[in-house]
Amino acid sequence: MSVDTTIVVPTIGRDTLRRLLESLDAATGGTPDVIVVDDRREGEPLDLPAHVRVLASGGRGPAAARNLGWRAATTEWISFVDDDVIVAPDWIERLTEDLASADDDVVAVQGRLTVPRPAGRRLTDAERSTASLETAQWITADLSVRRRALRRVSGFDERFTRAYREDADLGLRLSAHGRIVAGRRTVVHPFRSDGTWFSLRQQRGNADDVLMRRLHGPDWRERAGAPRGTLRRHQLTVMTAVAGVLLAAAGRPQLAGLLAGAWATLTARFAWARIAPGPRDQDEVRRMALTSVAIPFAAVRWWLDGLVRDRDAVPRRRLPDAVLFDPDGTLVHDVPYNREPARVAPIDGVHEALARLREAGVPTGVVSNQSGVARGLIAPDELEAVNRRVEELLGPFGTWQVCRHAPEDGCECRKPQPGLVLRACDELGVDVERCVVVGDIGADVEAAAAAGATGVLVPTRQTLGAEVAAAPRVEPDVLSAVRSILRGHW
C-alpha cells in the first residue's frame, strides 16, 4: 500500500537530520515524498540524497518552514517530522495504516514519541525536559494533518518564531474543526547535550505563553493540556529581590535584610525542586544552583517582552490567509513599462507594512498586469530583472503572478479578471475568500471581487475619482491598509 502523504522536515542543519533521513530510508512500507525545509539564514547548501526536495525559508522559524513545506506539497496528508527524531523500522507501514483508518472527521493523527532512558542513573534537568515530550499533546515531532484542514486554519501561525507553542496553537485551531487522534507509529527522540544554560534559554517561552493567552484566552493551558508552569513564583522572587534592593538604597537595612532572606529562601526552594529528582552529582548541582538564581529574572524579562511585543495580537481567525499586492503604484513608484531595475523605488511606508505582515505570519504575494511584454515594450528577461529588484528591496513574496497579455487578448488572468488572484491563492494554499488584494486602481479591487476576495484601494494621483467612489474599502496608504488588516478589519 502506498502512503498518500508528504513528509515535511524543518531543519537548521543539525547533524541529526542525516540520522532521521537514514531511518526513513530504512523504514519498510513504501517511499513517501520528503521535503526538507532549510531554515538557516545562510550557509552551504545541504548535501542530501537526490530524492529529497530541499526548500529554503530564510531563518523565519519552524512555523514558517513548515508552512513553506506543506504548501509545496499536493498530497491529501502532510506528515510533519522534526529533524532530531528517529523513525521506527515499521514507521512508514504504520503511518499508512494510521492515515487509511482515519475517519472523515479526523483532521490530524498524532504519532507516538518515546525517549530512551539512560541506565543506572536519574535524569538530569535537561533530560527531564526532553522526556516530558512523551506526554505532550499535539507535538509536531510526528504529526500528520489533512491538507484541507491546514488550508482551513491557514497553517502554522508564524508569529511563533521558535520551536515552542507553535504546535499547541495549531492543535487548538485544528480541534475546532475535527478530531485529533493518536496513531500507532512511533518515533524515538534521543537526548542531546544542550549546555549549561539550556534551562535559561528556555525562559523565552514565557513570551510565547503571553501570545497564547492573547490568541486563545486564559484557559488555553487546560484546553491544550499544558502544565501551569512556575511564572508566578518567579514573579514573586523577582519582586522580592527588587524590593530588597530599593529598600537598601533607601536606607532601610532591616527590611532589606528580611527581603534578602525571603529571596534566598525562594531561590533555594526552587533550586532544590530541580536538584532533588536528578542525579545530584557535582556538575548537575552546580548547573542547577547557577541557573536557579538567574531563571526567575530571565522568565520575568521574557514575560514582559511578550506583553509589549504582542499587546495588539489578534486571533489567527481575524487575520487574512494572505495579502496580495499590485506592485506598480502600490509597492513601488509607477514607472510605465519599466525596463531598468535601477529605477525601482519603494513607496514610503511599504517596508514597514510588509514587515508587519511577515511578523504576523500572513503570507504575501504579487499580482501584476504587464501588457508591455505583449506589446513589445519590455522584454520578458527585462521584466524578470525588474521583479527581482523589487524582491531585493522589499524581501521575498510567497508568489508572483504576472499577466503578460495585451488587453485585447481576452485572457482570464488580466485584472479585472480574477485569474491572477485565483492562481496566487492556489499557489499559497489559501482560501481566496480569506484573501485581501491591495492595489491603486479599480481593476485591482474588481479582480478581488471577481475572485471572491476582499479588495482595498490605496489611491494615487492616477486613480480615477469614480474608482475611489466605487471601491468597497479605501485607505490613504499601504501602511494604513496593513494596520487595519492586522486589527481584523478586512
UniProtKB/TrEMBL annotation:
State the GO CC annotations: cytoplasm
- Residue spans making up a coiled coil are none
| Domain Glycosyltransferase 2-like: from-to ranges | 6-123
Name the InterPro entries on file. Answer: Glyco_trans_2-like, HAD-like_sf, HAD-SF_hydro_IIIA, HAD_sf, Heptose_bisP_phosphatase, Histidinol-phos, Nucleotide-diphossugar_trans
Molecular function GO terms recorded: metal ion binding; phosphatase activity
Q: Name one GO biological process term.
A: carbohydrate metabolic process
The entry's localization annotation reads:
Cytoplasm
Keywords assigned: Carbohydrate metabolism, Cytoplasm, Hydrolase, Metal-binding
Keyword presence, Cytoplasm? yes
Query: Record's Gene3D superfamilies?
Result: HAD superfamily/HAD-like, Spore Coat Polysaccharide Biosynthesis Protein SpsA, Chain A
Task: Keyword check for DNA damage, yes or no.
Answer: no
Q: Return the PANTHER family for the record.
A: D-GLYCERO-BETA-D-MANNO-HEPTOSE-1,7-BISPHOSPHATE 7-PHOSPHATASE (PTHR42891)
Similarity annotation: Belongs to the GmhB family.
Name under which the protein is recorded: D,D-heptose 1,7-bisphosphate phosphatase
Q: Which organism is it from?
A: Aeromicrobium phoceense
